[in-house]
Each structure stands twice: as structure tokens, then as C-alpha cells.
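Example 3.2
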Amino acid sequence: ITELESEVERLRGDLARREHDEDEAQALRDRVEELTQDRDEVSRVLRSSRDESLALTRALEETRAQITSLERDVARTQSEKLAAEEQSAAALREAHEHAEAARSAMRGEHEAA
């Protein structure tokens, strides 16, 4: 009987340890599941951030291209404006020269008369 009682106590101890080990194992499985879910969420966020970053990079490149195009347009417009101003100045000088020549001719005619 003593041997049987000892064996029963030993088996109860083994059972208690196994139940404790099973509880720990379940707690570890639960933690693994939580960490897996966290990892999956971080992966989704990273993918989304990468997609947003790519979209922003494309938008930035498009904006830079537009700026470059506008800078070219401004340079062309300024060049055209400068050329027009030079033409106007030349036409004005020519008009002054013609006017001065006409005045001189009129003075000459007036003095001759």
C-alpha cells in the first residue's frame, strides 16, 4: 500500500508538472499568435508606406518636370521680350533719326528761302 501511495503521489506530481507545462505552452502559443499578428500589421503598414512614398516620389518628379518646363517658358518669354524691346528701341532710334533728318531738311529749306 505504501508503494502504491508513493506511486500515486509521484504520478500526481508528474501530472501537476505536465499541466503546468501545458499552461506555459499555451501561453507561449498565445504570445506567438499575438506577435505574428503584430508582424503582419507592421508588414501591411510598411507596404502602405512604401506605396505612398512611391506615389509621392512620382508626384515630386512630375512637379519637377513642370517646374523645368515653366522655367524654359519663362526664359523663352524673357528672351522674346528682350528681342521685342531691342526692336522697339531700334525703331525708335530710326524714327528719331528720320525726324532729325526731316528737321534738318526743313531748316535747310527755311534758310534757303
